[in-house]
Amino acid sequence: MPLITRYLALVVGWSALFVAISAIAPDVSLLFDPRTVAFVTLFPWLVACIGFPLRDLGASLADAVRPGIRDLPVERRVQSARVLRAVGGLTLATGVIAFFGTYLNLLSGLALKSGTATKTDYITGFSAMLLAPLYGLALRAFLYDPIATSIESASAFAIERDAADAD
Amino acid sequence: MRILLIIVVVFIGLCHFLLLDDVVETDPEIQTTFAMGDFIRGFGRPFIMIAVIGVAVGVAGGTPLGRRAAFAFLKGHPIDDVSAAHATRVFSATARAMVAAGALLAFTGALVLLGGHFTLRSTQSSPVTAADAIFLGLNAAITSLVLGRMVAGVLAEGSAAHARTAPPPAHAFTADLGLLVLLAVPTLITLAIMP
Fold first, then answer.
1. Which residue, A40, A61, A81, B54, could crosslink A152 as a Cys pair with Cβ 3.0–4.6 Å?
2. What is the DSSP string of A5-26?
3. Between B110-119 and B135-144, two packed helices, what is the crossing angle to 10 degrees?
4. Chain A interface mutation, best of B23, B36, B179, B185, highest count of A Cβ atoms under 10 Å
5. Which residue range is the domain that position A80 belongs to?
6. In a domain? residue A95
7. pLDDT tens profile A115-142
8. Which of B26, B127, B154 sits opposite A90 (nearest CB)?
9. Does residue A154 have a pLDDT over 90?
10. Looking at beta carbons, which residues of chain A come within 8 Å of B141?
């Protein structure tokens, strides 16, 4: 499968999300928080190191950007897809955890205002809380799952091809 | 090595809020009412409870072979196909029990304590009181996700990768979406305390 096809879901998904949100809110720069992006993206890979060997994590990353994955052994593709799905799940879970952490920061900010917080403060803080789950869900749905599926599809193709060759 | 990684992940997972925002406590009065230290110390009881429940369920639910294999996998020893399948079941049961225990604590603890907040509302209505009230729920939710979904979950995924015969215990997309239900607790509380 060409590399561009593998990342089509990512491009289309994020574009649709961007267009939909920009139609509602004029300032979409509020949707970008570099620290949350870094945490939601990197922390799952650290957690994945607990369950998977580093060489498997590296191989899955390499396979995700490799143009010709059909030439790889079936076992490796299955393992790469498994790792990517696991990291995708951890990404969503990280987003949920970060939601709670941001909520604590919201409460801390409200406490600093000593009871003078307005509705705008609440709504702004609540919007910031939703960013991490949004990133986690979008990364899993538009990045990790589609890539894992495409790698697995190539694997299924290879199994069918090998079976046909054997016949 | 694996044990060390688990300790690092649990530490970062529990204290990640310090990385995400500038949490500043400069007002001495606020430090007495909204103390971050109280929140961090509050991890103790939920942590012990969730860990004990998870380990108990894993030990009770697993076969002797599964328990031995899980312990060997934790220590980083190589395990065979059959042992890995048994260890996967142990880790999966542990993960499910931990997440469930945390969700129960988060919902019931937070709502009961929030009830106390509304009881006091006529004399002491402030976001600070509500924040104190939901510390238990927040601690439980974060702890259960870090210990259950993160650590035990990824151990299950990792041990399943060694087992050709066992189906992957992948936390399915729909199952992970269920975690979003936990978002209801702080959402409802925020709406409740909004002026």
1. A81
2. HHTHHHHHHHHHHHHHHHHH-S
3. 170
4. B179
5. 3-162
6. yes
7. 677 777 777 777 778 888 989 988 888 8
8. B154
9. no
10. 100
Nearest to A51 among B13, B157, B180 (CB): B157
Other Cβ atoms less than 10 A from the Cβ of B3: the count is 11
Q: How many domains does chain A have?
A: 1
Please say whether the beta carbons of A155 and A81 come within 8 A: yes
- Residues A103 and B136: their CA atoms lie apart, in Å, by 13
- Rounded to a whole number, what is the largest CA-CA distance in chain A? 77
CB contact under 8 A, A35 and B20: yes
**CA B29 remoteness from chain centre:** 31
Exposure class string for B80-91: b at 16+ Cβ within 10 A, else e: eeebbbbbbbbb
Domain assignment present for A167: no
**So where are chain B's domains?**
37-193
Using pLDDT thresholds of 50, 70 and 90, give the confidence band for residue A155: low
| Contact between B195 and A117 using a beta-carbon 8 Å cutoff | yes
Give yes or no for residue B21 having a pLDDT over 90.
Answer: no
Q: Retrieve residue A38's tokens.
A: 């870094």
**Chain A residues near residue B109 by CB distance under 8 angstroms:** none
CA distance, residue A149 to nearest chain B CA (Å): 13
- Taking contacts as CB-CB distances below 8 angstroms, the residues of chain A near B177 are 92
By C-alpha distance, which of A132, A93, A57 is closest to B13?
A: A93
pLDDT, mean of residues B136-164: 85
pLDDT of residue A69: 75
The span from the CA of B127 to the CA of B139, in Å, is 18
Interface with B, mutate which of A33, A39, A41, A47 (most B CBs under 10 A): A47
Q: How many angstroms separate the CA atoms of B180 and A96, rounded?
A: 7
**What percent of chain B is predicted at pLDDT more than 90?**
1
Show contacts of B29-34: CB within 8 Å, 24+ apart.
Answer: B29/A114, B30/A111, B30/A112, B30/A114, B30/B128, B33/A111, B33/B128, B33/B132, B34/A107, B34/A108, B34/A111, B34/B128, B34/B131, B34/B132
Q: Compute the distance between CA of residue A75 and CA of residue A152 in angstroms, rounded to an integer.
A: 10
